[in-house]
Amino acid sequence: MSGQVVSGTHDFRPRRFEGGGMRYLRFTGWLTELATHAHGIQRVVFEEVRRHAGTDAAHIYGGFLATLASWCEEHEVPYEGVPVGTIKRHVTGKGNASKQQVIAAIKARGFNPVDDNEADALAILLWAMEPWGGAR
Fold first, then answer.
1. Residue 66 burial (CB < 10 Å; 0-12/13-18/19+)?
2. CA distance 38 to 18
3. Averaged pLDDT score across all residues of the chain
4. pLDDT (tens digit per residue) in 60-73
5. Cα→Cα distances 92→46, 58, 104, 127, Å
6. What is the pLDDT of residue 6?
7. Cys-Cys crosslink for 88: which of 8, 17, 68, 97, Cβ 3.0 to 4.6 Å?
8. Helices 55-74/22-37 angle, 10° precision
9. Which residues touch 70 (CB under 8 Å, ≥6 apart)?
10. Alpha-carbon distance 75 to 67, whole Å?
11. Are 92 and 102 in contact (CB under 8 A)?
12. CA–CA gap between residue 110 and residue 107 (Å, rounded)
């Protein structure tokens, strides 16, 4: 393990002339590609969202969650969701921190996220790296 952190975001929105299920097939392919390039994935930690902006958001989240869980089960990779408030509290000290406060906290730790999504991913990584983070 090199200890190097590589982060970013990926867009899985359906493309023109694609069915809605293609986003999940591309997500599965992306997970497999990550595992190949990283010589395996030991653990997956993700943001556990309990409230959604609307019905479509809830359905899409559920689809990604089902796809992720299936992929992890198939590849025998442990996975766990972390509540949004827990992630925010870990990096900012406040469970109700704003997106800008999370970005600022991540930048203060030496990262340069391009947006709040990447900042959230890095915050989850930092939480998961702590001795108590998800190792319960």
1. exposed
2. 29
3. 91
4. 999 999 999 999 99
5. 18, 27, 9, 11
6. 80
7. 97
8. 40
9. none
10. 12
11. yes
12. 5
